[in-house]
Amino acid sequence: MTTWVENPSGGRERGPRGIARAWIEVLVRPQQFFRNGVAPGDQAPGLVFGVAVAVAYTIGLFSFAPERIPALAGGPAVSALIALTAVALVIAPATLHLTAALQTAILMIAVRDRGGVSETVQVIAYAAAPCIFVGIPSAPLRLVCTLYAAALLVVGLREVHGTTTGRAVIAAAVPATLLFGSAFGGVDAAMAVLRLAGII
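Above: the chain's sequence. Below: its structure in token form.
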């Protein structure tokens, strides 16, 4: 689950420019992006993309809510730097691969002929693209972003693993709830929106 190829057939462009292009493409043309931009064994661009999204989310969270910075050492600035380093090197990659492992296990049950684990890692990483904005303290924005991310996961699973939309929805339900609903705060945002609307 941690390997990639140097010269993949297809796959994504490396570097900051590649990350920016992938972010725009997956948001604007997700079906085409997942069909053409995910290559077997080529995890490096996807992993870097997922880490970049997580770091951007954390920076936004700390910027708008400094009280969320963990008290680690040397004051808020040093603590924030340590936390961001932990997100980039440990938390984001571990979360991505654990989610991919769960998603793979579900796909083994839901989809007979499917792509490999590497493709699943990439799909989850790129599906998180809208979550770059969820650090902004707006419940409606966070809800829209996390719902869009869940929809991108469905599209990605359908295109990459060659299954139906219905099966992709079923396969994505639990991983999307855990990652986008819990880790990125989509469930809390939904509850806040419902409270604002006077529904609950």
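Residues 1-11 have pLDDT under 50 and may be disordered.
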